[in-house]
């Protein structure tokens, strides 16, 4: 990148940046008033991630990449939490069986 904000280097950093990205609801001028869209503004996306060739549009490949990296980071966090829950349950069962308490 020739300037601006550096591109995130890892999925966790992408997820952290995504969590701060404002999401808005809007209607394009050419759409009927009843048509609503939701997402980040292109300028915010470009400033947050340093991706794309313009701050006027969000390329689908960049949006998909941000989503996929974030999903990977969330999956790793979920696996860690599930392992911790399993460890805590096993410890509780061990403690219960040692104290004679059974549920």
Determine the N-to-C terminus distance.
59 Å
Number of helices: 3
What share of residues are in beta strands?
Answer: 5-15%
**Count of β-strands:** 2
Choose one word for the global shape.
Answer: elongated
Estimated radius of gyration:
22 Å
Side by side, the strands of the main sheet go 1-2
Sheet with the most strands? Answer: 2 strands, antiparallel
Identify the quaternary structure here: single chain
Share of helical residues? 55-70%
Order of helices and strands: HEEHH
Poorly predicted ranges: none
Structural class designation: mainly alpha
Mean pLDDT: 91
Strand and helix layout:
Blueprint: H1 11-20, E1 24-26, E2 37-39, H2 42-49, H3 60-99
Antiparallel strand pairs: 1-2
Please provide a brief summary of the model.
Helix content is 56%, strand content 6%. It is mainly alpha-helical and 103 residues long.
Q: How would you describe the overall organization of this protein?
A:
The chain is mainly alpha-helical and 103 residues long. The protein has helices at 11-20, 42-49, 60-99; strands at residues 24-26, 37-39. α1 crosses α3. It contains three helices and two strands; from the N terminus they run αββαα. The protein has a two-stranded antiparallel sheet. The radius of gyration is 22 Å and the shape is elongated.
What key attributes describe this structure?
103 residues, mainly alpha, 2 strands
